[in-house]
Write a structure and sequence with these properties.
Blueprint: H1 2-39, H2 52-74, H3 82-111, E1 116-117, E2 122-123, H4 125-149
Antiparallel strand pairs: 1-2
Length: 152
Amino acid sequence: MKKLLLKQKQVLFFIIAGGLSAIVEIGSFKLFSINIPKFYPQETNLKGIHFPFSNIFSTTCGIIFNYFLSIWFVFERGKHSKKREFTYFIIVSFFSTMVSLFFFQIFFSYVFMSNLDLLIYTLSPEIISKIAAIILVSILNYSVKKNIIFNG
């Protein structure tokens, strides 16, 4: 019973850490997607890729924030050295970033074509696409981080 409770606690902390990281990622994406096109207008559509730099920079912010939350609150350390653990985390995060960028492009180009009015706030297609991509990739991230990077 204690093991089951501990497992549920870890999933809950992963969700909380992921949620906080998503807030950092979405917030920074909003800032980047507003400001980068002012200096680099092709950011909105660079050869068919929408907001590539905003996505990469915001995902990097979310990854770094998530790494620290993961080692402080979610996973136990000890399976690898700190250097190797961080290296694996970055490699997995790079792969996750590519998957996230792919899904963002699909969602932005084909799924979420208009704003979503939430009465008190309206979400743009970029933000909805970013949220959907984060949710999809989070499922993969938990499994890989738990079983490969940190103590399974």
